[in-house]
Design brief:
It is built from six helices and nine strands. The longest helix is centred in the first third of the chain and has 16 residues. It is globular and about 55 Å long. About 5% of the residues have low confidence.
């Protein structure tokens, strides 16, 4: 089963993107949509790393195959890193992208330090617990009002200096070349031959996971997290 990776999402665009990036490798990419109903992962971690790992490990255990998950969000310097892991629900559990942007702009009113960055953490977990992680980051600034109609989330208020535009004013292809998620995925794909070797080794020696999965070890090409 080391030649199968399940992407822990039902998002068709994410699935298409991953399949395109890994099209030259002998691996089959599936998504949660390929399986029946299953309990959702509880993403209550304090960091993006925690949540990506929790989601990847949860579905790897449920399905018995390696799973790749991501967690991402916006961190604003003047707000001590908020909204952070609460980015998607910053204005409340049922908040829309518009609601979240409104709350952010309100909290940033009068602030002179507009520095902010997007973060994305990818976690590839095996059913027994070990996982590899990659992180991407993209730095920019928070504007005082929305600009652009493309993108999603905080893209209309996130100004990227190298473009001289917000992420909502550029195409998805342009954004993906420099975005936090694009950078994390680029690292993942660049290391994929080593990832396949790692998966073969880990899937061949699966052991029941221990309850504590808070520790992780580093190697010289990525991060391996151990249960």
């Amino acid at each position: 089963m080391d030649n199968i990776i399940v992407l822990a999402t039902s998002n068709k665009n994410k699935l298409k993107e991953i399949k395109e990036l890994l099209k030259d490798f002998p691996v089959e990419i599936k998504s949660l949509a390929d399986f029946g109903p299953m309990p959702e992962a509880v993403e209550d971690g304090a960091t993006f790393d925690d949540n990506a790992y929790k989601k990847a490990l949860h579905y790897a255990k449920v399905l018995g195959v390696p799973c790749l998950a991501d967690d991402s969000g916006l961190a604003v310097d003047a707000l001590d890193g908020r909204p952070g892991v609460y980015s998607a629900r910053y204005a409340g559990p049922k908040a829309t992208d518009w609601d979240n942007c409104e709350k952010l702009l309100g909290e940033m009113a009068g602030e002179t330090d507009r520095a902010a960055h997007f973060v994305c953490v990818l976690s590839l977990a095996t059913p027994a617990g070990p996982a590899l992680t990659w992180e991407g980051r993209c730095d920019g600034e928070i504007l005082t009002e929305r600009r652009g109609e493309a993108g999603f989330g905080y893209d209309p208020v996130f100004f990227y200096p190298e473009f001289g535009k917000t992420f909502a004013e550029v195409s998805m292809a342009e954004k993906s070349k420099v975005s936090h998620r694009g950078r994390a995925l680029a690292e993942f794909v660049a290391e994929f031959p080593k990832v396949q070797t790692w998966l073969r080794q880990r899937m061949a020696e699966i052991k029941p996971p221990k309850p504590d999965h808070s520790e992780f070890e580093h190697n010289d090409w990525s991060q391996e997290r151990m249960c």
